[in-house]
């Protein structure tokens, strides 16, 4: 990390000064060895902020295996210009670096799951310069299968909890929804849409209501009953369903709900 490199450099300077004073028997010179330790201590304390500043100015390249996933599985990414594709890749990488990914049962969260979560978030805030990271949510908990929580005791596959700044996903459904969005509902995108609607409540958004479920089924073949049972949560917001399908079933969405499509296109792309 950038901050670590600075700290090591300062420590080397301090050691060199101390060695010089000892070799040339100049004990008074040793006091200068203390000077580099002061900024080194500051760098150590502020390491997260310094590292983030550095990486936002010099984003690391995305791993090739993750880039292939974007190139082959994400139509939003495929539609971007070369410059915007680079921006998208950088934001995915920065999102992964900025967040905590916490596995349940497994030892680590695989990099492809991190990228799926990150890409789903970046799609929604791609043209935003503030809060594009969904700053309130720092932790992403991955269960291997549906799960109950204190907030919702029924078994479900995704959830966000603002008070703790956490999102939760079932790994199985997360992967299915991203790699096979026409067969399985995209739950990562769905959950970020929920948060987007909360964080950007001032956005002039198209009106979605219960009367749209028939159109949603025509677009995706996901009926209201099956969709609600699949997610496993009460009070599913039709706007979240509509926005998710806007991204995953773009062409047919434009034909079935042209007015809503144009409105969403104006908010996103």
Can you tell me about this structure?
By secondary structure, this protein is an alpha/beta fold. It has two domains: 2-57, no CATH class; 64-267, no CATH class. It has helices at residues 2-23, 37-45, 47-57, 64-73, 75-78, 82-98, 111-124, 171-179, 187-199, 213-220, 224-231, 238-248, 250-256, 258-267, and strands at 100-103, 139-143, 158-161, 166-170. A four-stranded mixed beta sheet has the order 1-2-4-3. Strand 1, helix 7 and strand 2 form a beta-alpha-beta unit. Helix 4 packs across helix 7 (111-124), helix 10 packs parallel to helix 12 (238-248) and helix 13 (250-256) crosses helix 14. The mean pLDDT is 88.
First-residue to last-residue Cα separation: 35 Å
Helix-strand pattern, N to C? HHHHHHEHEEEHHHHHHH
Unreliable segments of 5+ consecutive residues: none
Question: Looking across the biggest beta sheet, what order are the strands in?
Answer: 1-2-4-3
Anisotropy-based shape: globular
